[in-house]
Every structure is written in C-alpha cells, then in structure tokens.
Write a structure and sequence with these properties.
Length: about 100
C-alpha cells in the first residue's frame, strides 16, 4: 500500500509541474531544495526540522525567483546582441 501511495504522489508531482512557466518552476524548485536543506541542517544541529524546512523553503523560493530574473535578463542581453550582430549595428542596452 505504501508503494502505491508513493507512486501516486510521484506521478502527481511530475504531471503537476508540466504546465508551469519557467518562473514558477524555478521558484518551486528553489523552495523544495531550500526546504530539504533547511530540514536536514536543523536536524543535524539538533533543532526543529519543521522550522528549518519552513525557513529553507522561504529562502529557496526567493532565491529561485531571483535566479529566474537573472536568467531572463541574460537572455534579453543575448538576444539584443544577436539582433545587433545580424544588422551590423551597436546593441541597445535592454532595460
């Protein structure tokens, strides 16, 4: 029975993320990684793993969102340089 529940949860987790944007995926990934790291870190230090998971999830979600903004800026700069290279002009700095 436990294997069936684990299989259903895994299947749901995989399909639940299929319609997410890149921002949502990166934020959720950051939250998951942060929650795991926070729970393990506080358990090792003999603290309450629940609070470690909550704090880690918050920090991880914020980090994932900031990373997404960085990747979008990087893509914008690349596209501006690519377009400028195709036309032979100086690239405009994206906002």
């Amino acid at each position: 029975m436990k294997k069936m529940i684990a299989l259903l949860i895994t299947a749901f987790a995989i399909t639940a993320c299929s319609n997410m944007s890149n921002t949502e995926q990166r934020t959720l990934s950051g939250a998951g990684i942060g929650a795991a790291a926070g729970a393990v870190g506080t358990a090792v230090l003999h603290g309450n793993p629940i609070w470690g998971a909550v704090g880690g999830a918050a920090v991880g979600a914020a980090s994932g969102y900031v990373y997404d903004a960085y990747k979008k800026q990087q893509a914008s700069e690349y596209n501006a340089g690519y377009k400028a290279g195709k036309t032979g002009s100086t690239p405009a700095t994206p906002n």
